[in-house]
Specification:
The protein is built from 7 helices and no strands. Helix 3 runs antiparallel to helix 4. The chain is mostly helical. About 70% of the residues lie in helices and about 0% in strands. It has a single domain (about 45-165), classed as Butyryl-CoA Dehydrogenase, subunit A, domain 3 (Up-down Bundle), CATH 1.20.140.40. This is Pectinesterase inhibitor domain-containing protein. One of its GO terms (molecular function) is enzyme inhibitor activity. InterPro entries: Invertase/methylesterase_inhib, Pectinesterase_inhib_dom. Keywords: Disulfide bond, Signal.
């Protein structure tokens, strides 16, 4: 019934497993469970609380990716510099602010306003990955950013799926 790596909801009231199971078609359940369980209070939170926690984690991952891009660009790798500046821009101008606003709207129960930001939240991961293809491919900076983009993209997928499950 549950795919590889999936966690069945615990009948004793494991809200983390239940929330992650509810979005299993969109996210890796093991990733979801391990990340949510790392947040204090997740075990007793409901799905809305898990959404807010996931939004906080995604915004933090986006901020970390932005910082990593800025740091790598400052090191002066000419092949990757323009791509890294693009990564800084899409994380800093789109994804991170959109996630923060979306979290605020979700916390207030303004579901339509929260959903209206879903087209902006993934732009950091998508845009950065696209920018790094080509001239920057194969550079150390591109490898570092690939890991940051992957983490951000998985967390953003959790946010999107939880928002759709809650609202």
């Amino acid at each position: 019934l549950y795919g590889a790596g999936a966690v069945a909801p615990d009948p004793a009231g494991d809200t983390v497993a239940a929330s992650c199971d509810a979005i299993r078609d969109f996210v890796d359940v093991a990733f979801c469970v391990s990340h949510l369980r790392s947040v204090p209070g997740a075990a007793t939170a409901g799905r809305r609380g898990h959404l807010l926690m996931a939004a906080d984690m995604a915004a933090a991952a986006g901020s970390a990716a932005l910082d990593a891009a800025a740091s790598a660009a400052a090191r002066g790798d000419p092949a990757a510099q323009d791509a890294l500046r693009a990564c800084e821009f899409v994380y800093g101008a789109a994804s991170v602010p959109a996630l923060r606003f979306m979290r605020g709207y979700a916390a207030a129960g303004s579901w339509a306003a929260a959903r209206s930001l879903l087209s902006l939240t993934p732009q950091g991961g998508i845009g950065c990955e696209a920018a790094l293809k080509g001239a920057a491919a194969g550079t150390a900076a591109a490898g570092d950013m690939a890991a940051a983009n992957r983490e951000f993209s998985q967390l953003n997928a959790m946010v999107t799926a939880l928002l759709n499950a809650v609202s």
